[in-house]
Amino acid sequence: MSTQLPDQTEDESSAGEAEPTSAAQERRMAKKRERAAERDEKRQAEEAEAALADEETYHLKVFRYDPEIEGKKEPRFDDFHVPYHKGMTVLDALMYARDTYDSSLTFRHSCRQAVCGSDAMFVNGRQRLCCKTQLSDLEEPVRIEPLPHAEVVKDLVVDMEHFYDQMEAVEPYFQTNDLPDGELEEQRQSRENREKVKMSTRCIWCGACMSSCNIAAGDNEYLGPAAINKAYRFTMDEREGEDMKQQRLEILEQEHGVWRCQTQFSCTEVCPKDIPLTEHIQELKREAVKNNLKFW
To answer: In what residue span(s) does the 4Fe-4S ferredoxin-type domain sit (predicted)?
Structure first.
């Protein structure tokens, strides 16, 4: 014999019927919210277009490539029109395009002050630092591509591993066997010697010079202008040990070292820090010759 009261059975039956009604209502509300979001997005896009119509804009043609997405494996160029303001750089324009139009647009950047070297790209047919390049100095459409002669990872990002390997090959750090006697005494450098190596210390490892070098493009083992400049910075420093100087010169004298340079000056032309790379390479050639001269 059941002990459940009739009114309890009726309440439970009503609750069971209300459940699908509630779910259906929630679905209707979700669709309503979705339509409202779409209307807001459309309105914002229209407002952005209207705002752009009243502003001076720059036309960007940006290289796109994504090997992980089926529809984007084929390289292409996307067009973006960004509002211009005085002092706007290429990096500013790229960031606006990413933040406003396409969040999947991928590129490297960091300090935005031409110090980190992370945003070197191929802009209007020339290697440039995007954070240092003014839009007003460029002709439209501004064509932005990844650095040539490097494997593209995604969009404007290239694989820099080979470049870093070449830099490390010259052992870019001090190695000396002539330390000061006092524990807290520093290694002193003359003003003249500092002036000699000053420009070479400005390298920010951006890779622009390596990308512009035709020799590096055809010879994957060539050290390249950036690595040779880094070797110059330590070889010419009077605080460097003689043994290490000799070792560096032996590295530079190899088949894929300084003698592969054909003095085209392309690296010097594109260097964003105005380092006289070609001159440094030629001076190291002279040092290599003197190092092998024997008088007896």
So the answer is: 201-275
Using left for φ > 0, alpha for ψ between -120 and 50, and beta otherwise, residue 105 falls in beta
Q: And the tokens for 249?
A: 């010169």
Residue 16 has pLDDT above 60, yes or no: no
Per DSSP, which regions of the chain are E strands?
57-64, 76-83, 120-123, 126-129, 142-145, 152-154, 157-158
The model's pTM = 0.77
Class of domain 160-177+190-292: mainly alpha
Say if CB 143 and CB 124 are below 8 A apart: yes
CATH of 57-153, picked from 3.40.640.10, 3.40.109.10, 3.40.50.1110, 3.10.20.30, is: 3.10.20.30
The DSSP code sequence of 92-103 is HHHHHHHHHT-T
Question: At residue 239, what is the residue type?
Answer: R
Residue with the two structure tokens 């004298």: 253
- Tens-digit pLDDT profile for residues 170-199: 988 888 777 777 777 788 889 999 999 999
Nearest-Å Rg of the Cα atoms of the chain is: 31
Cβ proximity of 231 and 246 under 8 Å: no
Task: Please report where in the chains the tokens 């400049």 appear, as a residue.
Answer: 229
At 196, phi and psi to the nearest 5?
A: -65, -40
Please, which residues bridge with residue 187 across strands? none
pLDDT digits (tens, 9 = 90+) for 206-239: 999 999 999 999 999 999 999 999 999 999 999 8
> 140-154, 193-207, 233-247 — which is least confidently predicted?
233-247
Cβ-Cβ contacts under 8 Å for 167 (sequence gap 6 or more): 205, 226, 227, 230
